[in-house]
Amino acid sequence: MSRAKEVITCKAAICWGVGKAVTVEDIQVEPPKATEVRVKMLCSSVCHTDISSLQGFPHNQFPLALGHEGIGVVESVGDEITNLKEGDLIIPTHMGECEECENCVSGKTNLCLTHPLRVNGLMPDNTSRLSVRGQTLYHVLSCTTWSEYVVVDVNYLLKVNPSINLAHASFISCGFSTGYGACWKEAVVETGSTVAVFGLGAVGLGAISAAKMMGASKIIGVDKNEMKKEKGEAFGMTHFINTNVSDKSASDLVKELTGMGVDYCIECTGVASMFTEYVEATKMGTGKTIAVGIGTELVVPFGLVAIQFGRTLKGSVFGGIKAKSDLSIIAHKCQKQEFPLEELFTHEVPLVDINKAFELLKQLDCVKVVIKM
Description:
Layout: E1 8-15, E2 22-29, E3 36-45, H1 48-54, E4 64-65, E5 69-77, E6 89-92, H2 102-106, E7 130-132, E8 135-136, E9 138-139, E10 149-153, E11 157-159, H3 166-172, H4 175-187, E12 194-198, H5 202-213, E13 218-223, H6 228-235, E14 239-242, H7 250-258, E15 264-267, H8 275-280, E16 288-291, H9 304-308, E17 312-315, H10 327-335, E18 345-350, H11 354-360, E19 368-372
Parallel strand pairs: 4-9, 12-13, 12-15, 13-14, 15-16, 16-17, 18-19
Antiparallel strand pairs: 1-2, 1-4, 2-7, 3-5, 3-10, 3-19, 5-6, 6-11, 7-8
Helix pairs in contact: 4-5
GO molecular function: S-(hydroxymethyl)glutathione dehydrogenase [NAD(P)+] activity; zinc ion binding
Family: Belongs to the zinc-containing alcohol dehydrogenase family. Class-IV subfamily.
Keywords: Metal-binding, NAD, Oxidoreductase, Zinc
């Protein structure tokens, strides 16, 4: 019997405030409104932004229903939905793409003005379909994925091929695609150019994958974890720098491999104190650094001279990836197994053991933790 018009009670990972423990509790998920879809989540994964959300970023609204990476199946749709139906496999996206607003048609940015990045923890109508013990639940961005069910506005969903690997689809819903897009859409790496990628988690490995696809001649991975060398090479890295085994600065180590520095630097760490190093690792006059990492320090100490010598520092959300036109291309490549995404899948936990995921992330061999619903 269909539950399309009923409130569903299900399990979800909840945090009640900064510094509070994450608990798995029964929550209530309302039916979708006219332009919304209720989704049964099948598989989720952990992104660094999920950790930041526990510390009050990008908003400080609690109680918080966690998670933003994942893939699920349509359980029911609102009355005005015509492009999705029960049983469709979808990826929730934290950005929308109307294809008609000034930003969308400009070709200059992926930040849609009609369906913007949601940073208040609520639906586009500024309400929530989730509650716990009678209290409104907020989500990290456009939805929550560490929940058995969730309601998402249709403009923040991408339908994908049912043959796609569920865990791999979860990885491309945010992290991997962010790095991939940073090289593909933001840096627009040229054939024969040189690229340095700082931080070899899922985002950094996505950047390496795109740099290889774009034809970069030298792809330098920079990390303090020696175990990331093998991962980087699997995605196309040509050189590896372990910053823990040298007293030299990271930018000097990059210049030792390139002479004058790289053409492009992709910053995937969010370490504020390192931003001058990221920029100075690029060539004077033409070097370009794309900042995609987000840490807990939102004020960046920065050496102005690094920019005054003609280099460029560009901020990026989701690596410049558009939620429909670009992410669908990445999803097709994922479905065709064009990326070695199995290299990212290092650990798995059930939703009820979500706190184990945070401990696993501290292990040197951990890249992505998959959450089975």
